[in-house]
Amino acid sequence: MRELTARQREVLRYIAGGYSSTQIGRRLGIHRNTVDRHLAEIYQRLGANDRSHAVALAIYHGHITLPELAAIAGAHTQEEAA
User: Fold this and answer.
1) In three state form, how does the secondary structure of 18-61 look?
2) For 11, which of 38, 52, 59, 81 could close a Cys bridge (C-beta 3.0–4.6 Å)?
3) CA 25, 61, 43, 1 torsion-angle sign
4) What is the pTM of this model?
């Protein structure tokens, strides 16, 4: 397994939070197609089949910690409530 870039880890954290490619693109100031290219590279590097699998593998390999995941989920939940 190859290491993820900082941008790939950032995209992966948003994916873990349940954000769509369009939403991630808006937050990062990039086009959704660029987000999808990052995601395709993440899949390849982690050996993942889809978004959920990528998040699970990222947690397993330490790219996302459980405290980070809790913070991500909490932030997204608060945004939806607002």
Assistant:
1) CCCHHHHHHHHCCCHHHHHHHHHHHHHHHCCCCHHHHHHHHHHC
2) 38
3) positive
4) 0.83
